[in-house]
Each structure stands twice: as C-alpha cells, then as structure tokens.
C-alpha cells in the first residue's frame, strides 16, 4: 500500500492512543522483524474512502536515556523516508520540550507533509494553550483529543488530501 501515515513524537504524548483509535476493529499488520522494526506497529485505517497504513512508532526496546533519544531520532528518520504523511504529535499539557524542538528541526528539513497534532485537548479550556505550538515552525496545528476522538475527523480530512 502506498498511503502511509507515520505518527512520531516523544514518549507519552499519546501516539499509541491515536494509533489504536485509527486502527481499531481492523487487523494489525503483524511483522516479525527485529531491532528498530520491532519498535513500529503497522495497522490499516480508512477515512472517506481512502485506505491507508498507519505506523505507530516508539515501543522502544531500549531503556537507557541516550539510546532512547537516539531511537526516537531514528524513528523520525525512517518516517521521513517511508511515510507519505507524518503526524508529529505533541502534548498540550506539557507544552514544547527540548525533544519536541529537536524533532521539529529534523522535520522542517524534510520534504514530506508534516501535521503538527496537538493532543490531549480534552476540553476547550486548553484551546488557547495549543497556539504555542505554532512556534515549532511547521505551519498549521491540529488540536485533538486521542482519548475522546475530538478533532481527529478534521485532521484526517486534511491528511487524505495528500494521497
Ligand atoms: P505514546 O507513548 O506517545 O504512545 O502515548 P500513549 O498513547 O501510550 O499515551 C500516554 C498517556 O497519555 C496514557 O496515559 C494515555 O491514556 C494518555 N493520553 C493519550 N491521549 C490522551 C488524550 O487525548 N487526553 C488525555 N487526557 N490523555 C491522553
Ligand atoms: Mg506508544
């Protein structure tokens, strides 16, 4: 399949929660590889007649803090290589961290479409906090709650335009 959406970002921002929401009731593509591949989950999703593969990155086999950051960078590099669209997920409850800045720098250099997905907007009270993520320099931001699903339809409407 050629439509590939990769979800990248630092740990705990909600990548797997979104992945599960997008791929639930559909079969995961089980693979059997080692190393960095084992850190990636592939699933099938669809939106308005578009089928696509979703990649959740960052199960993170390694524990050490250094390897951990290197693993995240590696996942971002692979996403830049293989994805049609990259969802860069950040967390409104923590704001921008150093690691977010580092990932943003990598993504700004890529030619792939990147969507800044501001997660954990469970209610409108946090909506104004999300605007700080414009300073990542990656254009429009998409405010969602992976938990409730709010905002994900508007995000996917834009994502499928790139297929
Ligand atoms: P990952 O490490 O990026 O894959 O993040 P997870 O999907 O494992 O989520 C990390 C934590 O954030 C979990 O405790 C989730 O329940 C929580 N979480 C994920 N999405 C949301 C959300 O939209 N709102 C809130 N309040 N919590 C969320
Ligand atoms: Mg995860």
Could you provide a short overview of the structure?
This is GTPase Der. This protein has about 160 residues and is an alpha/beta fold.
What is the element layout, followed by pairings?
Layout: E1 4-8, H1 15-23, E2 28-29, E3 40-47, E4 50-57, H2 65-82, E5 85-91, H3 98-108, E6 114-119, E7 141-143, H4 152-159
Magnesium ion is lined by residues 15-16, 58.
Binding site for GTP 1: 9-16, 56-60, 119-122
Function: GTPase that plays an essential role in the late steps of ribosome biogenesis.
Domain EngA-type G: 3-163
Q: Keywords, please?
A:
binds guanosine-5'-diphosphate, 163 residues, binds magnesium ion, Rossmann fold, single chain, 24% strand, alpha/beta
């Amino acid at each position: 399949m050629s439509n590939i959406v990769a979800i990248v970002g630092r740990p705990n921002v909600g990548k797997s929660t979104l992945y599960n929401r997008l791929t639930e009731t559909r079969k995961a593509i089980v693979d059997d590889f080692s190393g960095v591949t084992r850190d990636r989950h592939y699933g099938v999703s669809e939106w308005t007649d578009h089928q696509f593969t979703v990649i959740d990155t960052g199960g993170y086999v390694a524990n050490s803090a250094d390897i951990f950051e290197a693993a995240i960078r590696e996942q971002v590099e692979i996403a830049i290589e293989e994805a049609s669209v990259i969802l860069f997920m950040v967390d409104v409850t923590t704001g921008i961290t150093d690691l977010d800045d580092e990932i943003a720098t990598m993504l700004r250099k890529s030619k792939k479409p990147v969507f800044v997905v501001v997660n954990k907007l469970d209610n409108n009270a946090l909506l104004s906090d999300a605007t700080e993520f414009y300073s990542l320099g990656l254009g429009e931001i998409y405010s969602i709650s992976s938990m409730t699903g709010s905002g994900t339809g508007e995000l996917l409407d834009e994502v499928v335009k790139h297929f």
